[in-house]
Every structure is written in structure tokens, then in C-alpha cells.
């Protein structure tokens, strides 16, 4: 252990704090610049729908229950609410999907019948059934954390795909493709 | 003048939209009501403090006034009331939302380095310090 042995090591080590700081700086800047992903994906995709029965949320449509999703056809389960602004934004796209022949079942979260009626009159009614979920029971049951969210349910009642947020123009083809995929059994 | 008024009215209408983005329903039965049995309520409270509110993600559902957090509290209290084990309720939520929904630290294949790192660092520090303290001992060799 003589002095000359140590010197080259020390010369190299003198840059170590700067390198560490640089790495830390890049990490922090990366976290600041890149928008964080706050979406919480449902862990229920690939699992079966939980059991539920919801009363009708509109006089124009029946309510819905888990049994309605076991009749062999692929359906969309749309979590919405009349008080949710982005839900109005996805109305034209839902309408487009319904016209393409995909039945859509609505679950109205914490909503009043008169508000739902007003919402449907204003933005259109693409729904085959509308259930009222006053205590977010179905929402919690399928692992949804906000409105709107849309789930593709296959003919056996298995959740096959989750779309978080409003369905925009660019999402329609994705949803239709997922519906097609769900027509084949897992 | 009327155009300015129309603009103002439009602006006011736009402002009022976010304010309307809140539901009108009363909270779920057990969102703000404690369970009748204090022991059960304590259990529910302990659990609720370690469950994440999914709307306001840095609060627990015990802390949050989001209506969804209220519905989650209702769910937790009802299940506790029915005699369900708190950890079973946590597992039920984790099954739906992943580990993210729980604040309780778990030792898993993914998280073990978090627990091991302080021990490793402490050992490393001890090792380095020992070298430091022993360096001056062999004075006679220099």
C-alpha cells in the first residue's frame, strides 16, 4: 500500500460526484418533462364480470345485470355520468360504434334519472340498456377508477379490454378491432 | 355591445361547466357514517387509512371527500359489518386495481430491494469505517 498506487484511482474518483449528480439531474429532468401517467388500469381484464343487478336509469331503456353479458354477443360496457363533461365528448363516437352494430350498455355512476334523461336528450342515446349505479358498486367491481371508461365484454361475460377516458375519433377503430378480437373465445 | 354581452355569457357558461362536473346524489349510506360497533369502526378506519383514493391519488380514502372515495368507504364499512376480514377486503381491491390501491408496504419479489438496501448500505458503511479505524494501527510498517 504505497502512495503512487493510490493516485490514479483517486484521479478517477474525483469525477464520481459530478457523474452521480449528472445522472440525478437527468432523472429529475426526465420526470419533470415527461407527463406522468395517472391512469390506473383495471386488473380485471381477462377475468369475469362480477355479479350485479342495476335498476333502470332511464324510462326509455331497461336496467342491466351480469346475465345480460352471457348471451353470446360481444358488448360494450360504458361507465358514464350526466355530470361528467368528457362523457359528452365521446357521445358521437359511441353513436358511431352503436351504428356499427355493437350493443352498448351504459352504467350511470351516481346519477339522477332526470339528469340522465336530459343528458340523453342533448347528446343522443346509443345505449341498449342503462343501469343506475348509485354507490359505484359496479365501477369498483370491475376496477374502473373514473368516468368515462369503456369495457369490451365477450359473449361469456369475460372482460376483454378496457379503454380509459373518452373514446375519441382516433379510438373508434381500436375499439371495433377489440370487439372483433373478443368474438373469438380466449 | 350585445356581442360583448354574448361573449361574457358564453364565458360564464364555460366556467359553469366544470362546476357542474359533480354528482347530485347524496353520499352512500356509510360514506360519512361510522359503524355502530366501535370495534368494527376501528377496524374499518385502520383499513381505510391504508387504501388509496383513486380520484385523488395521494390521499387515502379516509382523507378524501371525492364521491368515489365515499363509495369505497361505504363498501369497506359494509363488508366489515358483514364480518369480512380487513385483509380480505384489501385483497378484493388489489384484485381489481393492482397493488397501487394499497398503501401498506408489502415484501414481494418486486419490493425486496427497498427493504434490503438500507441493510446493505449500513453493512457497507460499517465495513468502510472499520477500514478507516484500522488503517493507522500498523504504524511500525511505514
UniProtKB/TrEMBL annotation, chain A:
Transmembrane segments: 12-33
Family to which the UniProt record says this protein belongs: Belongs to the thioredoxin family. DsbE subfamily.
Primary location: other
Locations listed in the record: Cell envelope
Protein name: Thiol:disulfide interchange protein
Any one GO molecular-function label of the UniProt entry: disulfide oxidoreductase activity
Entry annotated with the keyword Membrane: yes
Gene3D superfamilies, sorted: Glutaredoxin
Entry annotated with the keyword Methyltransferase: no
GO biological process annotation, one example: cytochrome complex assembly
Record-linked InterPro entries: Periplasmic_diS_OxRdtase_DsbE, Redoxin, Thioredoxin-like_sf, Thioredoxin_CS, Thioredoxin_domain, Thioredoxin_ResA/DsbE_sf
Residue span(s) of domain Thioredoxin: 43-184
Domain of life of the organism encoding this protein: Bacteria
Automatic annotation (TrEMBL), chain B:
Transmembrane segments: 110-129
GO terms under cellular component: plasma membrane
Keywords associated with the record: Cytochrome c-type biogenesis, Heme, Iron, Membrane, Metal-binding, Signal, Transmembrane, Transmembrane helix
Signal peptide: 1-21
Single GO biological process annotation from the record: cytochrome complex assembly
Gene Ontology MF: a single term: metal ion binding
CcmH/CycL/Ccl2/NrfF N-terminal domain sequence ranges: 29-136
Free-text function comment from the UniProt entry: Possible subunit of a heme lyase.
Record-stated family: Belongs to the CcmH/CycL/Ccl2/NrfF family.
Protein name: Cytochrome c-type biogenesis protein
Amino acid at each position: 500500500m504505497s502512495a503512487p498506487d493510490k493516485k490514479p484511482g483517486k484521479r478517477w474518483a474525483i469525477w464520481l460526484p459530478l457523474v452521480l449528480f449528472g445522472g440525478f439531474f437527468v432523472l429529475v429532468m426526465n420526470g419533470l418533462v415527461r407527463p406522468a401517467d395517472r391512469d390506473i388500469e383495471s386488473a380485471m381484464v381477462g377475468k369475469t364480470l362480477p355479479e350485479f343487478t342495476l335498476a333502470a336509469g332511464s324510462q326509455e331503456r331497461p336496467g342491466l345485470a351480469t346475465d345480460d353479458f352471457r348471451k353470446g354477443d360481444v358488448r360494450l360496457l360504458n361507465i358514464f355520468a350526466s355530470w361528467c363533461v368528457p362523457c359528452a365528448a365521446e357521445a358521437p363516437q359511441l353513436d358511431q360504434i352503436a351504428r356499427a352494430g355493437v350493443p352498448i350498455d351504459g352504467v350511470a355512476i351516481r346519477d339522477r334519472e332526470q339528469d340522465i334523461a336530459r343528458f340523453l336528450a342533448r347528446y343522443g342515446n346509443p345505449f341498449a340498456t342503462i343501469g343506475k349505479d348509485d354507490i359505484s358498486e359496479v365501477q369498483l367491481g370491475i376496477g374502473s377508477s373514473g368516468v368515462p371508461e369503456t369495457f369490451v365484454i365477450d359473449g361469456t361475460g369475460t372482460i376483454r379490454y378496457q379503454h380509459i377516458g373518452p373514446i375519441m375519433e382516433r379510438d373508434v377503430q381500436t375499439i371495433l378491432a377489440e370487439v372483433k378480437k373478443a368474438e373469438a373465445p380466449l | 355591445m350585445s356581442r360583448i354581452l354574448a361573449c361574457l355569457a358564453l364565458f360564464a357558461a364555460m366556467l359553469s361547466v366544470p362546476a357542474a362536473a359533480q354528482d347530485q346524489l347524496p353520499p352512500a349510506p356509510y360514506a360519512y357514517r361510522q359503524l355502530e360497533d366501535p370495534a368494527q369502526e376501528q377496524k374499518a378506519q385502520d383499513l381505510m387509512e391504508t387504501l388509496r383514493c383513486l380520484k385523488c391519488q395521494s390521499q387515502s380514502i379516509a382523507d378524501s371527500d371525492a364521491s368515489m372515495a365515499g363509495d369505497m368507504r361505504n363498501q369497506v364499512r359494509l363488508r366489515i359489518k358483514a364480518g369480512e376480514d380487513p385483509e380480505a377486503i384489501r385483497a378484493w381491491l388489489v384484485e381489481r386495481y393492482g397493488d397501487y390501491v394499497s398503501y401498506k408496504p408489502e415484501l414481494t419479489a418486486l419490493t425486496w430491494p427497498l427493504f434490503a438496501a438500507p441493510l446493505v448500505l449500513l453493512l457497507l458503511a460499517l465495513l468502510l469505517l472499520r477500514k478507516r479505524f484500522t488503517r493507522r494501527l500498523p504504524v511500525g510498517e511505514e
